[in-house]
Write a structure and sequence with these properties.
Blueprint (H helix, E strand, L loop, with lengths): L22 H4 L7 H14 L2 H6 L17 E13 L2 E12 L2 E14 L2 E14 L23
Antiparallel strand pairs: 1-2, 2-3, 3-4
Length: 154
């Protein structure tokens, strides 16, 4: 886990530095809405911050422990939609990752609940797939460059 470094861009895709984004939620401030919690949880997966993930997981569905050592190399997050009403929330997202020389994605519709003034991850309906970017398509790593001039060259 490496939450101490000041990242130029927060892994959640907000476009701002980690210190002005998800770091405050990782430091203990409650996320203001389900989307902010989802972004901070994605960033926690990137940074392998297991304690934060467990702390923000509802007790009724939380695993006993979490081992992120074999977790894929997460490269980008795209929020498709998010909503909250009262103490319930939902976030639909797609996270891309690199596995070996290939690319994949995890898509999830996540359910959140607010208890004691804190949003918590409850559960999600997930699907996974393989990404096969074309040479002239945007690179899945989120760099903004074309695949052929970014990660295809690596």
């Amino acid at each position: 886990m490496n939450t101490e470094r000041d990242l130029d861009q927060c892994p959640c895709g907000s476009g701002i530095a980690y210190s002005g984004c998800c770091q405050r939620w990782h430091a203990g401030a409650p996320a203001p809405d389900p989307e902010a919690l989802m972004r901070s949880r994605y960033t926690a997966y990137v940074l392998k911050n297991e304690p934060y993930l467990l702390d923000t997981w509802h007790f009724s569905t939380r695993p006993r422990d979490l081992d992120l050592e074999t977790s894929p190399y997460w490269v980008s997050l795209r929020i498709i939609s998010s909503a909250d009403e009262g103490s319930r929330g939902r976030v639909h997202f797609r996270a891309s990752y690199q596995a070996g020389s290939g690319w994949g994605y995890l898509e999830e519709i996540s359910q959140f609940v607010k208890e004691g003034g804190q949003w918590l991850y409850l559960e999600g309906e997930t699907s996974e797939g393989v990404l096969k970017p074309g040479r002239n398509e945007p690179c899945p790593c989120g760099s903004g460059g074309k695949y052929k001039s970014c990660c295809l060259r690596r």
